[in-house]
Amino acid sequence: MDNVGYCNDNYESLQNAASDDELVDIAGATLDFSFTEDVPPLDPEYSSGYDIYTNGVNGHVSGISGNAKLMDLLDEPVPGVGTYEDFNTIDWVREKSKDRDRHREITSKSKQSTTALVDSITDAFSGWLLMVLIGLMSGALAGGIDILAYWLTDLKEGVCLNGFWFDHEHCCWGSNKTTFQEMDKCPEWNSWAELFAGSSEGAAAYVLNYMMFMLWALLFAFLAVILVRAFAPYACGSGIPEIKTILSGFIIRGYLGKWTLIIKTVTLVLAVSSGLSLGKEGPLVHVACCCANILCHLFTKYRKNEAKRREVLSAAAAVGVSVAFGAPIGGVLFSLEEVSYYFPLKTLWRSFFAALVAAFTLRSINPFGNSRLVLFYVEFHTPWHMVELVPFVLLGVFGGIWGALFIKANIAWCRLRKNTRLGRFPVLEVLVVTGVTALLSFPNSYTRMSGSELISELFNDCSLMDSSQLCGYVNSPDNRSDSALFSAFSDRASGPAVFSNTLPDRPAGPEVYTALWQLALALIFKMLITVVTFGMKVPSGLFIPSMAVGAIAGRLLGVGMEQMALNHHDSAIFKSWCSPGADCITPGLYAMVGAAACLGGVTRMTISLVVIMFELTGGLEYIVPLMAATMTSKWVADAFGREGIYEAHIRLNGYPFLEPKEEYGSKALAQDVMRPRRSDPPLAVLTQEGMSVGEVEAMVADTEYSGFPVVVCQDSQRLVGFVQRRDLVISLDNARQRQEGVVSTSQVFFTEHVPPQPPSGTPSVKLRGILDLSPFTVTDHTPMEITVDIFRKLGLRQCLVTHNGRLLGIITKKDVLKHMAQMANRDPDSILFN
Predict the structure, then answer these.
(1) What are the sequence ranges of the domains in the chain?
(2) In which element (H, E) is residue 711 found?
(3) CBS domain spans which residues (predicted)?
(4) Backbone torsions φ then ψ of 99, nearest 5 degrees
């Protein structure tokens, strides 16, 4: 490749070539990403002695003594080389190669001394130790969030006289004056009307409680949005779309930093307590990933390798779901199915271990005081029947339709927020939505309670001593046998699940019909308010609101099926399996299936969702109904559009994410997509010799490309390798400081051997060490279908296009995304990080 004879060749088709496109148009970014101090972009020894090249080509580095020898970066690595700028994609191949070299070096040294052997064992064990730390930290934070959110939610309705830090349930635990009919009332807990006016009855008391409920909700929401806006803009939203993008290799500095973790944890408690239609389960994935990113800095192999760090973040995503739902296995499957881009077998084992540690930590904290990891844990024991598959599938159809419509409505609202003046007033938007939510939710007890409490109420299977409105059935000697009563009372210590085993289906009483009307109104309210709530500038998850919508629909259908079986048990549908006086239908099971269907319709989760739901209920026999409803919801939702809510938000924000599930059917070739095009300027390339430091710096200053191909000479365009812009800038700055006599006229060489220089001449700069000698290349006739697969499976930043070894152009990740957008009839300019 060093043969200058190549320069005599001519390649006419290259004369009209255009410049290669940058990986990410940093100049076009419109978001304010100013919180970058959380994750230092370079090693500490570099950041203390060098300045990043941001102020032009003459940026310099201070505090380093000069050295007159010819610098070879292979022998003397420069701090900062091999790192990445913000809003860039990592080079997966280079990162994995670096880790292999590091591991090979450690293994070879371990055979030479005992100390090196100990270092090798420590290095191998560090990954498992990191998983333990992530599990402990995430579990502890999740437990604290659960306890505080539960307390602040109850604070909107009253206060405990024994101590203001007690929530309603814990306040009444030690009371001897509670009854089965009014288990939630005790003298120690006072509503605000009782505290201020001395009475809880009458219109004045109702209005006072109403006003206090709204004031507390507005205060919590105001504090949440102000803290996010002032200290950590990245703390808003769910975080899962950004986590997916980061795991695919994109760098957003500060998104997983310490300030984001602190503010997200605090504001998540406030946002959930405000009563907004949102959940904490999605943001807990973001919190766990923040913990993982911060703890990665304790271990060198994860701090200095972006690919290894993303393996840890994949495990952290599993931890987030594990502490959110108390479902360690479901968390691992969620990370594998929904968020991870690269998930080797080793990461699977470590994800499972980290999720186990996190679930154990949360169980030790016991935030709800019931030895359960989630508020809505239930157990069903009544078997389901084949006939019930029909209503289960109907719930799947409802979940798919609602999921598809919700995605379209929410994306339309978020796009309106981004493109109009509405986006300029995030604080006002949050306060208005909170005020409307509190105003409309207080009169209805099912919208007044938190989302987790609502789901728990809907999943519940009625027992004899249940005081809920949904359990207001008519108990008469005709529909309740003495043996059932005896069995229920004798097994009272076993809990509500035993009652559901023994109580037959009963006629619905007036309380049940009142509850059904309230649930119908709550369903409409939740469906509408969640559209405008998700995406506001506060932490907001979508799992709980989606499950609440499905649980309401499922409970309504379940009660209807229960009454139909009771009143028409002689019909052909029920006669074979539902005898009079039997417990045939479990409405709580319908609520659970509806919750899974709606969540599946919104997120398009399948396997992980089914596992999460059966881990919640502890009943393996309900896997088939869950699978039927989940798959039906996915099929129905996919008929309206194949994107889930997270993929839709990734596209809305213009993140450079290549969706592995998206099909590619174009017959285009690499030469049809590559840059330069015929109307573009020539391709910006470096030559392996013959260019001066000033010429290289001028090319860097005049362009914004993320890297430059290196060729033998301009005439032949024979490819030598590829050099990253950041590595080139840092190396030239380093050479000016550490190598005496380097000036703008000094020659730059990318060759193995530097030709002898005259004694009176300026010293040369050798940059062979930063040159990638094996860049990925395709020929100009390679089908784009194969090229897209290469980008997806190898995580490439760019791919060079050659013809008989001569460079024709370059295809970047953004070029691929723009091309795929054109194929889908979307605006290709939307593929910008905005």
Answers:
(1) 127-153+197-365, 387-652, 670-830
(2) strand 707-711
(3) 674-740, 770-828
(4) -70, -40
Helix (H) or strand (E) segment spanning residue 747: strand 747-749
- Judge whether 55 and 728 are in contact, CB under 8 Å: no
Give the position of tokens 């005049």. Answer: 702
E strand or H helix at 533, and its extent?
helix 510-533
Structure-block tokens of residue 381: 């024991």
Cis peptide before 676, with omega less than 30 degrees from 0? yes
Length of the chain: 834
Q: 179 CB contacts (<8 Å, ≥6 apart)?
A: none
Q: What per-residue confidence (pLDDT) applies to 830? A: 66
Q: Tell me what pLDDT residue 504 has.
A: 67
* Strand ranges in 172-232 using DSSP code E only, listed in sequence order: 189-191
Q: What is the dihedral of CA 352, 357, 361, 366, to 10 degrees?
A: 40
Please, are residues 572 and 564 in contact by the beta-carbon 8 Å criterion?
no
Task: With beta carbons less than 8 A apart as the criterion, state whether 189 and 168 touch.
Answer: yes
The residue assigned the tokens 């709204």 is 214
What distance in Å separates the CA atoms of residue 20 and residue 684, rounded to the nearest whole number?
Answer: 7
DSSP string over 479-512: TS-HHHHHHHHHTGGG-HHHHHHHPPP--B-HHH
Q: How many CB atoms lie within 10 A of CB 199?
A: 12
Instruction: Provide the pairing of β-strand 189-191 with 707-711.
Output: unpaired
Checking DSSP bridges between strand 158-160 and strand 189-191, what pairing results, if any? antiparallel
Residue-level pLDDT at 811? 92
* CA 49 centroid distance within chain: 35
Q: Which two tokens stand for residue 194?
A: 């009782």
At 264, phi and psi to the nearest 5? -65, -40
Q: What are phi and psi of 261, to 5 degrees?
A: -65, -45
The helix (run of H) or strand (run of E) holding residue 698 is helix 693-702
Compute the distance between CA of residue 182 and CA of residue 177 in angstroms, rounded to an integer.
10
Whole-angstrom Cα distance, residue 63 to residue 79?
A: 14
Distance CA 195, CA 392 (A): 47
Tell how strand 765-766 and strand 777-779 pair up.
unpaired
Tokens matching residue 819: 């091309």
Q: What is the pTM of this model?
A: 0.84
Task: Read off the DSSP letter of residue 55.
Answer: S
CATH 3.10.580.20 fits 670-830, yes or no: yes
Q: What are phi and psi of 508, to 5 degrees?
A: -75, 135
Strand pairing of 719-724 and 747-749? unpaired
Sheet holding 765-766, edge to edge: 691-692, 747-749, 765-766
- pLDDT, tens digit (0-9, with 9 covering 90-100), for 707-733: 899 999 888 889 999 999 888 999 888
CATH topology of domain 127-153+197-365: Clc chloride channel (1.10.3080)
Q: Which residue has the tokens 């659970």?
A: 592
Please give the structure tokens belonging to residue 691. 């260019």
Q: Do 590 and 554 form a contact (C-beta atoms < 8 A)?
A: yes
Tell me, yes or no, if the two domains 127-153+197-365 and 670-830 fold the same way: no
Edge-to-edge strand list for the sheet holding 686-687: 686-687, 707-711, 719-724
**What whole-number distance in Å separates Cα of residue 336 and Cα of residue 605?**
11
Q: Is 599 helix (H, G, I), strand (E, B) or coil?
A: helix
Q: Residue 468: exposed, middle, or buried by beta-carbon count in 10 A (0-12, 13-18, 19+)? A: middle
pLDDT digits (tens, 9 = 90+) for 363-374: 888 887 776 777
Query: 330-342: buried (b, 16+ CB within 10 Å) or exposed (e) per residue?
Result: bbbbbbbbbbbbb
What are the residue ranges in the chain where pLDDT is below 70? 1-77, 174-184, 371, 375, 464-465, 476-505, 581, 619, 830-834
In DSSP terms, 739 is beta-bridged to: 67
Angle between helices 306-325 and 345-365 (to 10 degrees): 40
Compute the half-sphere exposure of residue 317: CA atoms within 13 Å on the CB side of its CA.
Answer: 30
Q: Tell me the β-bridge partners of 748.
A: 691, 765
Overall fold of domain 387-652 = Clc chloride channel (1.10.3080)
